[in-house]
Amino acid sequence: MEPSKTVFSENRPDSTEEYQREVYQQAWDNSLVRAGHSDYTRYRLAHLDKVEQHREHFRTYIDHHVEAWRHNRSQRNLPAEEQQIRRPKIMHMIVPGTTGAGKTVGAVAAGSYAVERGLMARFLVHSHYLKWMRPDGAPPGMTQLMVREFYERCDVLVLDDVCQQMDEYATNHVRDHTSDLISARMHSNRPTIFTTNRNSAQLTVILGEALVSRIGSRAQVLNMQGSDRRKPKTW
Predict the structure, then answer these.
(1) How many CA atoms lie within 13 A of 47 on its CB side?
(2) How far apart are alpha carbons 200 and 77 in whole angstroms?
(3) Contacts (Cβ under 8 Å, ≥6 apart) of 75
(4) pLDDT tens for residues 41-52?
(5) What does the alpha-carbon distance between residue 184 and residue 161 come to, in Å, rounded to a whole number?
(6) Which of 20, 200, 169 minimizes the C-alpha distance to 92?
(7) Among the listed residues 198, 168, 174, 189, the one whose alpha carbon sits nearest the alpha carbon of residue 126
(8) Which residue from 83, 94, 139, 178 puts its CA 20 to 30 A from 226's CA?
C-alpha cells in the first residue's frame, strides 16, 4: 500500500498520530481484501462473545507487544551502549482448532485491536504467500522481494490457515519460504498470530522439527474448538 494514496492531502487529519492510524487501518483492511476476506474487516474483539476468555487472551497478547514496542522505540534515542531493548517473552500466538470454530475471526479481531493500539498489522493466508513466492507468482505490480518485505516488516502478522490441505510431501519451497518469513520476524521481535487446523505433530511433518520448535518455544496456545459456526448445509 502506498501511504500517499490512502488519504487525499486536503482531507488529511491535522494530527500526525491520527493520520498514521488511518494509514494503518487502510493497510490492515487492504490485506484482508487481498486475502479474499473483505467481509472480515468489521470484526473487533467485542465480537468474540462466545468465550470471553478468548477475547482477554488476545487483548493481553497485543497489549504485551504494544508495551514492548513503545519501550524499544523510546530506547532508540539513547546511545547504543545504553539501550535496553525489551524482548517479549511471548512472541507467537498459536490458534489451533476445528473448522468453523472461529479461529480466523478471533485472529482478525486481534489484528484490528493491534491497529487501534498503534501497530501496523497485516493479514496473510499461508497458501497465498507460498503462491506469491513462486517465479512470476507475485501479485501485479509487486516482486517476490516486495511481497516478502511487505509481510516481514509489519509489526503484527496474522498468518492464517497454516499448512491447510498440505501433507508430508510438502516441498522445499514450502519449508524454505515459511521458515525465512518466520525467522526474519523473530529476529526483529515482531509477533505473529498463527491459525491452523493442524496439531504440532502434523505441522512438524510438513514444516520440519526445527521450525515448529522455534515457533512453539516462545508461544501461547489458544485452542478454539467447537461445531462449525458457519452452519453449512450437508448433502
Answers:
(1) 16
(2) 41
(3) 83, 84, 85
(4) 999 998 876 556
(5) 20
(6) 200
(7) 174
(8) 178
